[in-house]
Amino acid sequence: MAAASGLESVPPAQRNPLLTTSWGTGELIRHALDAGVRQIIIGIGGSATNDGGAGMAQALGAKLLTAEGQQIASGGGALETLALIDLSELDSRLADCRIDVACDVTNPLTGPQGASAVFGPQKGATAQMIDRLDTGLRHYARIIARDLDIDVLSLEGGGAAGGMGAALYAFCGAQLHPGIEIVTDALQLAERVADADLVITGEGRIDSQTIHGKVPVGVARVAKRFNVPVIGIAGSLTADVGVVHQHGLDAVFSVLYTICTLDEALANAAANLRMTARNVAAVLQMGDRR
Questions:
Q1: What is the 3-state secondary structure (H, E, C) of 26-57?
Q2: pLDDT value of position 106
Q3: Phi, psi of 77 (to 5 degrees)
């Protein structure tokens, strides 16, 4: 999804989740169906959208209609105009296609922990936009419940990627899985970890959000099945990082040693990571000397 409807496609100054659409992701799904694919794994991180996956559904033939019988406009701001969902022209090949969604967060569609409130700001949403987007998604969910008899408000991960999790579940019959589970199964991580003495994992920033389906905690859960200690290394840590210790990360380290800008941190990332790894190794060797 990040390649078709992602943040990297929209310059920061132009990001506006009231307008951005997930249509391109729907086009990718349709292209896969055209190629005869009948099992699809969709990664839904890094989106620039907050349209509840409406654009994706429209690209696959769903009619999301206003009270006047017209397709709603693109973007999260148009969800408030939705009056009727008609799936009579939805791509019929979806019924014979298994779609698994790699979803790294468990956030619901709406509310304080929902798509708009938690992820809207990084997509360019102001406080006023967030309120409007959240209201639109709640209305969207009510129409889905009424017309499709599907509850997306209580769906764990429904708020992922601006509501794409909810849309794939409702319109495509997809199943949501923690992305890390799909990756760990593919890599046979359990077999690799079983005889390990130590596991080192990491991500860009380790904070309280890390416990919500992110890679470090997913790796730690596998390691803890074999009582293997886990160290997390990140570009930065936040004040609330302590919560990760309750989820399998025994120790966490930041690679930053001085106050710097993001550009400076990225430019020196390799050197900083080597220094951190050297210090972690030194601590481990201290234990061996006792």
A1: HHHHHHHHHCCCCEEEEECCCECCCCCCHHHH
A2: 87
A3: -70, -20
The Cα 286–Cα 200 span in angstroms is 18
Residue segments in the chain with a per-residue pLDDT below the cut of 70:
288-290
- Rounded Cα gap, residues 97 and 134, in angstroms: 31
d(CA 289, CA 281): 13
Nearest one of 83, 89, 15, 79 to 52, comparing CA atoms = 79
DSSP classification of residue 137: H
Q: What are phi and psi of 139, to 5 degrees?
A: -65, -45
Domains and CATH numbers, the chain: 2-180 (3.90.1510.10), 191-289 (3.40.50.10350)
State pLDDT tens for residues 39-83.
999 999 899 999 999 999 999 999 999 999 999 999 999 999 999
- How close are the terminal C-alpha atoms of the chain, in Å? 50
Question: pLDDT value at position 105?
Answer: 85
What is the structure's pLDDT at 289?
65
Nearest-5° angle of CA 68, CA 30, CA 42?
105
